[in-house]
Amino acid sequence: MRYSIITLLAIGVLLLTYSSIYSFELRRFGSADVECALPDVIGNPAAVANIENIGIIFSYENNFSLKELGENFLELAVPNRFLPFYTSFSLLGKSKYFQRIEAELLVGKMITESLLVGCGLGYGIFSYPEGFETIKKEGVNLGAQFSPVNFLTLGTKIEYVSVNEEKRYPIKVGFTISPVNWLMVGCDVGWVSGTDSPDFRVAERVNIGEWLVLRFGIASPPTRISFGGETGYRHMLFFWGYGFHPDLGSSYAAGIGVRIEKP
Questions:
Q1: What is the residue-wise DSSP string for 130-173?
Q2: Which tens digits make up the pLDDT trace of 222-232?
Q3: Which of 44, 49, 128, 152 lies at a C-alpha separation of 20 to 30 Å from 22?
Q4: 249: region left, alpha or beta (phi > 0 left; psi from -120 to 50 alpha)
Q5: Which residues contact 43 (CB under 8 A, 6 or more apart)?
């Protein structure tokens, strides 16, 4: 934790000369992982098509208040006319106990002004102390977002996940509505093969002027809550988030990023 905070501060000093970008990982954290139809949360690969500027983001999550489960994220978002892409790298835990390394690459494409599509690849390694088996995770996902009217977006995300040859097929559908410019509400329903009941998630985003964005989310079962925010200072943007699980306790997150304007 101490070294992660020092790294955050060091990056903040280096990025003073640039403008800011939002952290997609912390947006998802503060929104209870609602991702299907939110245009600014890159969980659904179709949302990659909304990227407007090159962005580099570093964030840290303290999962369940355990330093052994601290997780560092490095994100890179790059727009271009042909195929915008987003990639992330995460490192969770410590090699002494348990460590998870994951990487993800997502691409998105605007088919029409109303329809976005995308796909992605993911790979992860779960390692344990000597004497325990290393577990590998591979994944593929497809997504789409459709906006029939300005205030409504529909979304879906379909995944294939293989963990040591054990396969799962999570499916999510969702929608967002934005009745006024400063408010957006999203809802996701997800199913995973082999589970008894679907997973429900609801999130809202509130814009307070041009300098502050607040997020709140709730997921069930079991009932979990989260909230987060984004605020800027000069050419920087800071992110923070909090999540609560009834059995595992509290998690915290913070991040900082930079946006490099397209020429």
A1: TTS--EEEEEEEEEEEEEEETTEEEEEEEEEEEETTEEE--EEE
A2: 899 999 998 87
A3: 152
A4: left
A5: 24, 28, 33, 35, 36, 157
Q: How remote is the C-alpha of 61 from its chain's centroid?
A: 12
Handedness of CA 26, 29, 31, 35 (dihedral sign): positive
Distance from C-alpha of 257 to C-alpha of 193, rounded to nearest angstrom: 36
3-state SS, residue 211: coil
Nearest 5 degrees, angle CA 210-CA 251-CA 218?
65
Quick check: pTM over 0.70? yes
Place of tokens 């934790």: 1
Instruction: Give the span between the Cα atoms of 45 and 162, in whole angstroms.
Output: 19
Residue for token digits 């329903």? 189
Assigned CATH topology for domain 2-260 = Porin (2.40.160)
pLDDT per residue over 160-183, tens digit each?
999 987 899 999 999 999 999 999
Reading the block at residue 206, the tokens are: 């509130």
For the record, the structure tokens of 39 come out as 């245009």
CA distance 61 to 243: 10
Find the radius of gyration of the CA atoms of the chain.
Answer: 18
H or E stretch including 5?
helix 2-14
- Stretch 4-18: mean pLDDT, rounded? 36
